[in-house]
Amino acid sequence: MSDPLEELRAALGDAALVTEPAAKEPYRRDRALDPRPGMPLAVVLPETTAEVQAVMRWASAHGVPVTPRGAGTGLSGGATAIEGGVVLSTERMRAVRVDAATRMAVVQPGLLNAEVKAAVAAQGLWYPPDPASFEICTIGGNAATNAGGLCCVKYGVTADYILGAEVVLADGRAVRVGGPRLKDVAGLSMLKLFVGSEGTLGVITELTLRLLPAPPPARTVVAWFDDTERASAAVFAIASRIRPSMLEYMDRTAIGAVEDVLGMGLHRDAAALVVARSDDQHPDGAEVASMLGAFTDHGAFETFEAADQSEGERFAHARRIAIPAVERLGPLLLEDVGVPIPLLAELVAGVEEIARAREVTIAFIAHAGDGNTHPLIVYDPEDTALTERAHLAYGEVMDLAIRLGGTITGEHGVGRLKRPWLVEQIGDDLLEVSHRVKRALDPQGILNPGTIFAADSAASDDSAAPDEGAHTR
Ligand SMILES: Cc1cc2nc3c(=O)[nH]c(=O)nc-3n(C[C@H](O)[C@H](O)[C@H](O)COP(=O)(O)OP(=O)(O)OC[C@H]3O[C@@H](n4cnc5c(N)ncnc54)[C@H](O)[C@@H]3O)c2cc1C
Prior knowledge:
By secondary structure, the chain is an alpha+beta fold.
């Protein structure tokens, strides 16, 4: 019997197929560092939609699982390789075409977010969504997770900038959803179904992006608190009065970790740092005054406007590098929970209580203006008892978010790691409907099995059964 991989090699060419174990190793996991990833048969590196179609036709003929992959910066285990499957990396799909007249760009998925931003900036335009990882993550990964970021509090998330997508389905057909039209309501809203589907419904091979004129200059305001509750209350006060273009939060542990890296003179003993921006161009500067006032009214022990763009950018950068900085304390169980903004203080207090009760370190950073937070639970794989407590805390934080009417994931996606909590989040009926959609588009269950849906869920509704390596309830 012929080796099925030889068929794939014949279709794509030698250079597009990685089979050597050491070369496959970097493609097995994303930044969530799933402890037990599978070893794929091969990593495939297509360049065109036609090549992605060839991969999917082959995979569907042979029943081989396919893990779509951008840059592997995902934080929910959504790009974990499957034993005996193939990883489909978009790293060679890097074309970009900008149409300044219509303020749109057509891009292949493997381009980094920062490269998209740079290509459109060269024509005086702006692609706003800015995950803190924008220099290392792909636009395809952003679309597949519906990524958020720092400016999303004012400018919206990835889905708000996607007008159209080309998607290769499990059976190898390529469909176009939406397109270069600002208004288009023909048929069901399928575009939003694929955006955020984490590689479980199709492989995104092209995106049509909506662009804005170049961003206006922003002013940055910094506030230090010795009490997290007051900091959260200040965030709520600002969010309810104005539309800041950034409203970010870090707690003491995160501040200390960032200061260890940058040495920029952050107050290590502060309980919380809030970094806010306004790009309102009104000459009276009322938004900046309003933010400074809110910080003072809520007891900030220090608040000031950054002297210039570069000082403002230093504080934004400090917030952006918080995850890698805290990673230096040890491996992380990364949360992405969100709550309605009025409940931010309750979430912060609840997470602090969980950290105390479980005796674990939890650094707390947040896109606070969105109510989207990242409690970062530090553990040590060598310390079994600590690791167990960290996993219990991981679940308790999600339980807390659900109890507060929030979400288990605001921007990173369910992936494999949060799947056991999905049913509680969305309920049995919606989960069952989601399974029907999955089965309709991927009846064999070959697209990213284990992500959002249990690996064998093409035939069942069991989303709570964890895979090997997933954190369990
Ligand atoms: C330091 C750091 C900071 C971060 N900050 C943020 C932040 O502020 N906001 C935020 O939202 N995220 C953030 N992230 C998470 C991560 O960068 C995003 O989820 C990003 O969108 C993932 O892009 P990627 O190219 O790395 O995708 P991957 O990790 O490779 O994949 C992510 C998911 O998308 C699927 N996928 C990838 N490409 C395709 C495709 N072409 N078609 C179909 N499915 C596909 C994968 O199967 C997987 O399920 C951060 C990560 C790090 C490490």
